[in-house]
Structure formats: C-alpha cells, structure tokens
C-alpha cells in the first residue's frame, strides 16, 4: 500500500507574464497603493453587482409575478405549461449569458488595471 | 422485480469507476505528477469534473421526484443549483483561486488569522457534508430497491461500505478525468431516456382537458408497493390484488369502495383503464391546476408559498458557493482567469443537464400516476422508462438511468466523504494517514446509520437543507471575507454560529416533526429566508463592534485575493 502524501504547490501563483515594478508599490501600503487597490476592488465589485442584480431580479420577480397575476402561473403555450417552459429550460440561457458577459467584463477590468500600472512606470 | 440488465449496469458503473480511478493513480505516481496534472487541466475538462462531482442523487433523481410529487414549483431547486454557479463565478472563483486556500477552514484562518474560527468552520463542513451525504445513501437504497426488488437498506449499506472502503484504502481519490467522465455519463443516462420517452409517448396534448381532475391511469396499470403504505381511495374501483390488503392476504379482484387501505410491502395492485389514481394518505395528489404553479408547496396560504419559494431560491442560489467538496476542485485551475472560465462553463453544462429532470417530472405526471399510489415518486427517473416504453426498450432505458443514478451517488459521496475525513483528521484529530482513514470510516458509519434511521423525507428536500445551512454560514463568510476589508474573526465567528446554528436547528426540528403547517412549517422547513440575513447581519454587526480584532495586514490579504496574476510580484506571502 502506498503512503498517502499531502500535495502542495511550491509557489502560490504562476509566474507573472509581465511584471510591473509599480505593483511593488501596492505592497508598501502607502496611500497611492491603497487607493489603487481600492479602485481595483471597486471596479471588480461593480462587475459582480452588475451581473448578480439582474440574475437575482429574474429569480425573485418571476414567483412574485405569478402570485400577483395568477393566470400567469397557469398559462400554457401549445399545450405545454408555461411553468415548465420557464423553469425547465427558458430561465437558463439568460443566466448562462450573464456568466459569459461577466467573464469578459472582469477581464477588461483587469486589463485596464494592468495598463494603469504600466503607464505609471513610463 | 429483478432485472439482470439493470443490476449489471449498476455493477458496471461501480467497477468502471474503480478501474478508471486505479489507472489514473498508476499514471500519476508521485506528488509532482499530481501537481503537473493539476496545472495542465484545461478549463472545459475541469468544468466537466466539477459537474461530475456536483450532480448528485438530488439532481439525478430528487428534482424529478419532488416535482412529480409537489408540483413544477420544485424545479426552483434545479434553477438555484445551476444559478448558484453564477454567484460562485462573479464573487468567489477568481479571488479564492488567487488567495491559494482550497478548503473553507483554510480560507477562514488565512484571511482572518484565527485558529478558533478555523475549528468552527470545520464543524460546519461536517454538518453540511453530513446532510448532503444522507440523501445520496437513500438514493442508492431506492435504486437497488427498484432494480433488484430487495429492501432499501441493502443499497444504503452497500454504497456506504463501497465508498468508505474505497476512500480508506486510498484507491478512490477524485481524479479529474474520472469525475469528468461521470458528468458525461450522467448527462447521457438522463438525456437519452428522456428524449426517447418524449418521442414514444403519444399524447394528444400535454395539458389534460379537466385541469381540476386528479391524474388518470391511461391503460391497465400494475402498481407495485415495495414498502407498506396507507392508500386513500376517493372513488370506488375494482382492482386485481396480489398480496396483503388491510391485513388480509388477497389473490384476485377486490373492490376498494373508498377510504384508507393498508397495503402490505411487496403487494401488487392492478388498476383498470380510465380510473383516477389514488394517492398515499400522507401525500394527496395535486390537481393539475395546483401542480403546474411555479411555487414551492409548503403551508397552505399563498404567502406561505411565496416565502418558501424564496427560501429555496435563497438557499440554492447562495448555498452553492459554500459546498466544501466543490471548492476543493478549484485547486486544479491554473489561475484566477482559468477559474472564471471553468465556472462559466460549469453553468452552461448544468443548464444542459437540468432540462431533463423537468421532462421526467412532466412525463411522470402523465404516464406514471401509479407512483402517487405507491408513494414512490422519488424513483420516477428509474421507473418511468419501464412504465412508458414496452419490452426491451424500457428495460434498456431503465438500466441506463440506474447506471447514471449510481454514478451520481458514487462521485458525490466520495467527494463528500473525502471532505469530511479531511476536515476531521486535519483540524479536529491528530493529522496523518491513519487518522484520515479512521475519520473516513467513522464519518461513513455515522452517516450510513443516520440514513437508515431518517426515512420518508424526499431526497431533494434533504439536499436543499444542506444548501440552506451552507448559505447561512459559509456564504456570508466567503462573500464578506473576499469583498469587505472590515470583517473581523469575532464577527465571522458570531455569524457562523448564529446562521449555521439557526438553520441547522430549523432543519433538525422539521425532521423531528415540529411545525407541520403554516408559518412554522415555512420558517423551520425553509430556514434560509431568515437565517441568511441573520448570518450577514451578525457578521457585519459583530465586526463593527470588534474593530480591534482586524487582522494586521488586511491590505496584503486583499491584494492576495484580488490582484490579477499578470501584475503580481512574486512572494505575496512574504
């Protein structure tokens, strides 16, 4: 029987493709670094909220709507219940699209942040 | 009813998984090999592996079963199970990967510098995984019962032993490739039967004309009772009975005039064509009008239903990010960007899967009303193919769903038990290989015994509770820990204890039978609606009151969480 071993990564992150000397400032906790970090987190959080609010609205408003307009909960399209069409498939495409849209937006935020650091190096 | 083909399919899945796992272990012999493998897993393969681990008995059997019993509103569980990955994607995946913590206790200690908080998180890991593991074992019992006809406890014990032995011997470690294979197996095993049945079933219209009427047997239908049940008959009907009815042994036609009848285990009743399907006394059949409402059915009033729907949505939407066995998988992502890509693909793969349990629920309502009569709605995915398709086709399709179901139990239970044993041995007992094995055996035995004791609760409801507890404890810990610099370990501990404690208490009281109707049933049975806000409030409030306990290097920790890889300087941890 083989010994069980704990496998740990020796480095905590992959080597940076491009390293910006300015990133060092961020660690020195001076005011500039802290402001820069805060702006990054705020931009990321903005992207997160921009995708989670519409998703939550979709999930929370649909049941409310069917309570306020009871006929909606019992409607059917071509003999197939509307509830089945929505909860059994129709609700997923917007959620998946929101996911892919978030990924693009989050990557753009990171690109802009990297550019900002590089500009400062010049 | 014994079907060798179905039993064969189950055995094939178990053996196939073991062989694949063993081969994977042989290919990757040294720790360094594992590491290289971890780094090279492409996001799409990784996403399949996460789905393979995630899609459990609840997704494969439970959703369709609950939707058949309680109405289409139960599909909210599926929607939430998938949508939870949007929260994971947008708020957790990349920062957690960048932080380098792969279990929640690791994150709790690394972010807030408190060994005590780490222990509290470990206890919550055990609670959540335990509640999640319980229904997996129940599902295995159901599958064996359906396939071999034996009592359900055999399946529970068999799966319990297989998983415990597999993990304790170190041979069933979750290899990415095996888990990825499990996803595609499960997708094929539910999609092919669903699509074939959809084509086979010749229905004039999916909506019955009389929407107030109960479901009707469209043909002469044999209803099998694997367990003893009390059946409530509304309209007199003459059935062909084989077995025990009201304590009397029968073999031939009897008249069920109306009222409650005690049907013995192993009895078969054959109903004539065109009669309404009776239901078990404990669970009345819904009229079609009630059944198609998109609301979770707890309590009687419409406000109860809306509240319990929100409870389910909140628990599943926010609970997915707090599942210990899933977060471990993010370790295999190369970096934060890859973690995001993986998560978005997971969302897509889950959306593809969850279409099919819904189809099973709808077809089950039309084609398998006998499941209401025998109280076996949770087995609709296993039973429907043989009811709706005649002869060999039905048996082959049943074998396929049984194989998929078993793949679901195996992959999810292994992941859960590894998380439990890891947490127990690493954080609560002595560390080391022996301790890990003892922990796996201990946790496995406790949960197997619990699964034998807790019967009669729908699989999906149990898994939903695991999500509710995760949403009320780990969700606020992760979200606030990642996005709010002001979180202190004392605040986090307060939230973990209050939120995790209150939601667990609600669940335990519901299992004990407290709160049968009205608001108590809603607030105890779907606790997330109040315990999630409670946990968030406690964490924020507690942190604001204990500002002195802030970790000293908050900025450094936030950098570790949020700084993109490309602008990092090496040695973040200094």
How would you describe this structure to a colleague?
The complex is a heterodimer of chains A (122) and B (574). Chain A has one domain. In chain A, helix 2 runs antiparallel to helix 5 (92-121). Chain A is mostly helical and 122 residues long. In chain A, 70% of the residues lie in helices and 3% in strands. In chain A, a hairpin with a 2-residue loop joins strand 1 (76-77) and strand 2. The longest helix of chain A has 38 residues, at 31-68. Chain A has helices at 23-27, 31-68, 70-73, 82-90, 92-121, and strands at 76-77, 80-81. In chain B, strand 3 and strand 4 (248-256) form a beta hairpin. In chain B, 67% of the residues lie in helices and 7% in strands. Among the domains of chain B are: 4-25 and 44-199 and 311-455, Sodium/glucose cotransporter (Up-down Bundle), CATH 1.20.1730; 221-284, no CATH class. Chain B is globular and about 80 Å long. The longest helix of chain B has 38 residues, at 391-428. A 4-stranded antiparallel β-sheet of chain B has the order 1-6-3-4. Chain B has a 3-stranded antiparallel β-sheet with strand order 5-2-7. Chain B has 574 residues and is of the alpha+beta class. In chain B, 60% of the residues are buried. Chain B has 23 helices and 7 strands. Chain B has helices at residues 4-27, 31-40, 43-54, 57-70, 75-99, 104-112, 115-148, 152-168, 176-200, 288-291, 302-319, 324-327, 336-367, 370-374, 380-388, 391-428, 433-453, 459-471, 474-483, 489-511, 518-525, 528-545, 554-562; strands at 221-225, 229-233, 237-245, 248-256, 259-263, 267-271, 279-280. Chain B starts with a helix and ends in a 12-residue tail after the last helix. Chains A and B meet through helix 1, helix 2, strand 2, helix 4 and helix 5 of A and helix 2, helix 5, helix 11, helix 13 and helix 23 of B.
